[in-house]
Fold this protein.
Amino acid sequence: MKTFPMFLQMAGRHVVIVGGGEQAAQKARLMLKTEARLVLVAQELDAELAGLVAEGRAELVTALSAQVFRGAALVFVATGCVGLDYAAHALAKEAGALVNVVDRPALCDATTPSIVDRDPVVVAISTEGTAPVLARQIRSKIETLLEPGLGELAALAGRLRPQVNRQIPQRERRFFWDWVFGGPPRQAMARGAGRAALKLVKDRLEGAGAGPVQGAIALVGAGPGAADLLTLRALRLLQEADVIYYDRLVDPAVLELARRDAERVFVGKEVGACSWPQDRINAVIVAAARQGRKVVRLKSGDPGIFGRVTEELESARAAGLPVEIVPGVTAASAAAASLGRGLTERGQTDRLLLATATCKPGDPEPDWAQMLQPGTTLAVYMGVQKAALIVDRLQAAGIPSQIEAEIVANASTPQERVIRCLLSGLPEALDQAQITNPAVIFLRWPKGAARTVVKSAAA
Ligand code: SAH
């Protein structure tokens, strides 16, 4: 940066403009937006500038001397005469002033930026003279972003700040201001309803005295991957959320649907990266909601299925925070849809069992043989690494090895893969096809298929 942007204090100070023509008038118009007193140094003034003096909005000095520049916040020189410009510049410098000589960059201590003015909100743009057209383009973009009432809203905020500081605890203030500038007060001000905006803010302030602004937590099912398998409720919550905590299996396409300025925090496990322990996840979710933020904890599939939802529910409830579960399409449902068949089949499988092969460390091994009975569809989650063990246990219990296994990996996503094999060949089939998690393994034992003789030597 050859130049550095600063906002100069203008109230109670004066600005000197040397010159009486159109260029001087341009600077005068600009300076009249500020609270500075205007001093014009010229022997002749054009009609506009003369009018300012007549109205008492500017003071006229006819003699050029260093004295007039003393203590000036800024000096503009625009006489239209080279010699006079140099002379005025020298005197102003002698008086220690910050000088801008119009159209003579070599004589400028400071330049005027392109300005978007929503006083007291002011945006200054500079390209250091490299690209004035670009500066204009940027300016028009910002002009469209900042609606006319914005300055009034900022001024209102400034007036209410002491009251807000008294009434709203510090950790909730940011949320309050987020609401003022991103919510109904801003919308009201934008449509010109200043009084309505003020009333909204005041009502909220009075309500705030009764208790802290409260956040909320939603444990939301993101579905199996495809964004259009999201529920409408999940979509609404994603669009309302201030912050979204998501894990590894949540498809990026789903996150895309969230409010653009929502904060997104990855809390999953990734190879090589450190993982978030569950209690840390619980703690950050609660902390965010306590700040009054709307929190979405986005979990793959249905949050209530192998999603450790209980821990998150309990920590939210223990903190006295409102918490809800938004169900989602679980992986088994999506996987069965990919196979083009139901999870249950009348007369064949009347029982559906969802089981995980990855339990809490130290827990006893699941009793697979007890789960897979005639008439059952068993959907195994997180089972790819445990497939050989599951098959062993089932075969040892005499389960027919001609039972068919169906595996769906990445159901509903572009990476989806389906393989079918006999129960006995499951580990090899997974190996050969290089199937990894996420995958659901279906084992179906239709009614009527006979149990083979138990191999166990115990009998
Ligand atoms: N709550 C999730 C399950 C989380 S456990 C749900 O209801 O679906 C993670 C396991 O879910 C994965 O190891 C895998 O077994 C299964 N899974 C998740 N997404 C899947 C997908 N798109 N296709 C197949 N299996 C999936």
